[in-house]
Amino acid sequence: MTVNETIRQVVADHGRLAVPIESLADGDDLFAAGMTSHASINVMLALEDAFDFEFPEKMLKKSTFESVASISAGVAELAGT
Amino acid sequence: MTARSAERLRVGVDLVAVADVAASVLHFGDRYVRRLFTPHEIDCCRRPARTGDGSVPYSMESLAARFAAKEAVIKVLRPTDGQPDWRSIEVHRLAGGWCEIRLSGRAAVLAGDAGIDDFSVSLTHEAGAAAAVVVARCRVIERTSTEEGDG
Question: Which of B110, B84, B109 is nearest to A56 (CA)?
Answer without folding.
Answer: B84
